[in-house]
Specification:
Largest sheet: none
Helix content: over 70%
Order of helices and strands: HHH
């Protein structure tokens, strides 16, 4: 049996990357609402989404101990 493969399957996934990606998508979605108003607001929403995702990833990592 390939134990290295089994270890890869049973390891928990990294939730921090999911938080960053999810918040980036939220930022893009929110930015599309304001896209007709200003392109700068669109870019700001994307950057805010990435920033919030990074903060959430840090909090998730901190709670794991």
């Amino acid at each position: 049996m390939n134990y290295k493969y089994l270890k890869m399957i049973t390891q928990p996934s990294n939730k921090g990357s999911w938080a960053i990606g999810g918040m980036t998508l939220v930022g893009i979605g929110t930015g599309f609402i304001f896209l007709q108003t200003s392109v700068f607001i669109f870019v700001a929403c994307i950057l805010i989404g990435i920033g919030l995702g990074l903060v959430m990833a840090a909090l998730i990592d901190k709670s794991k101990g």
